[in-house]
Amino acid sequence: MPELPEVEIIKRGLQSELVGDLKILQIKCYRSNLRNLIPLKKMNELAGSSLLSIERRAKYLIFKTSGGYIVSHLGMSGTWRLGEEKATLKKHDHVQIYFSNTKNLILNDPRRFGYFDYVEDLENSTYFKKLGPEPLDPSFNAKKMFSSIRNRHVSIKAALLDQKTLVGVGNIYASESLYLAGINPLRASNKISLLECESILEAVRNVLSLSIEKGGSSISDFKNLLYHQGNFQNHFQVYDRENQSCLRQINNKSCSGRIRSKIISGRTTYYCPKCQK
DNA sequence: CAGAGCTCCTGAATGC
DNA sequence: TGCATTCAGGAGCTCT
């Protein structure tokens, strides 16, 4: 579920709910065998620390506290929601953070692929060291993207999913972006021209921005902080549209291609073989 | 070293 | 209806 837009939506929700001079009162954990879980001792130490800011990097949410950084990755099925004052726990609620303004946050993650970890030095942490650039950062450009993929022997779809090329793009937005750019996902990265890189990056930016505007994509289970669904799934052009007709208009005529699906680098990819070259 | 493939886990959808 | 199988948004690990 959570790719860059969904994590960004949750981050913005957190920023608007957790305002003022807040302290973490307590972190409760209801499942001790989560992946990359903050050690219990550290969890206790974090009680009493101040919440300084909430940021997003790639698909990670970062709680900056006076005692270090809490790093949360939502994996495939994670969500944070604002707990009620007397919070009733649901199935798969694993972590709960209590704040000094009586609010609390609950991490729910059925598949438990997510992380809830602690790092002292964010930039040098194993999570952040290897991350590529943020696609929406204006200092990133097609030229940089071109030089990072021009020698790679993987499909352009695989290169987009690789967080070293650029971050935040997952399976849905990779398909959507390549469709928008008119590039066939099977094309080899080292055969993509600089000009084509420009249209791919522009498409990635447009798709991600529009999705953020629409509150993210809710397929099965994505919810924002207030447990509302996003709306971008209603704007998918190719994702999950196998055998349906292509929506592209070329010179006022519809493309008339049929959307295909194909497994590329282990994940289902949707594209129009007719208009994606 | 790069790249392919497997793996962690639950639940929804599909097939018999 | 009930049971088995397949598949799902991520990314780290192990092979080759």
Explain what you see.
It is a single chain. This protein is an alpha+beta fold and 277 residues long. 25% of the residues lie in helices and 22% in strands. It has seven helices and twelve strands. Strand 3 and strand 4 form a beta hairpin. The protein is elongated. The mean pLDDT is 94. The structure holds a DNA duplex (16 and 16 nucleotides).
Tell me the major beta sheet.
Answer: 4 strands, antiparallel
Helices and strands, in order, run as HEHEEEEEEEHHHHHEEEE
Shape category: elongated
Spatial ordering of strands, largest sheet? 1-6-7-5
> What amount of the residues lies in strands?
15-25%
Give the tally of β-strands. 12
* Structural class computed from helices and strand pairing: alpha+beta
Mean pLDDT: 94
- How far from one another are the termini? 28 Å
Produce the secondary structure layout.
Elements lengths: L3 H14 L6 E6 L10 H7 L4 E7 L2 E6 L2 E6 L5 E5 L9 E7 L4 E5 L6 E5 L6 H4 L12 H8 L6 H6 L9 H11 L12 H20 L35 E2 L2 E2 L5 E5 L2 E5 L6
Antiparallel strand pairs: 1-6, 2-3, 3-4, 4-8, 5-7, 6-7, 9-10, 11-12
This protein binds a DNA duplex (16 and 16 nucleotides) through helix 6.
Entry summary:
With 277 residues, the chain is an alpha+beta fold.
Question: Which terms summarize this structure?
Answer:
277 residues; alpha+beta; 4-stranded antiparallel sheet; 7 helices; 25% helix; elongated; DNA-binding
